[in-house]
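Pipeline run #58 for the internal structure catalog. This entry was flagged by the ingest filter as a single-chain record with no existing model, so it goes straight to prediction. Upstream metadata was stripped on purpose; only the residue string is passed forward. Reviewer on rotation: M.T. Logging verbosity set to normal.
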Amino acid sequence: MATLSKTVAARARGIILALSIGSLIAVFQPVSHILFQIGCVTAFLSAILFNMMPFLNAGQPVKSLRQPALTILIVFLCLVGFAILSAWGYVLYLQAQ
């Protein structure tokens, strides 16, 4: 059975942390509006990915990452669905005005 090596686990944690820090820098920089937008999206994604941190341990079977990853994916899809539904409802509200 394949397990996470110490290097792979450390790299995965490092990538998630780098994405988190990079997104915060992009959000709070005062220069570019496009960079701010990219930072907002990546901050949201990194916040969701940060939930995988407790499961990225060396020696842990790779198969054990499926359940938390699937749970995080389902939560992400629900949030996107609610965002789309609320935007659609707001459009209907504006059209009724």
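catalog note: The chain is about 75% helix and 0% strand.
catalog note: The chain has one domain: 6-96.
status: ready for reviewer M.T.
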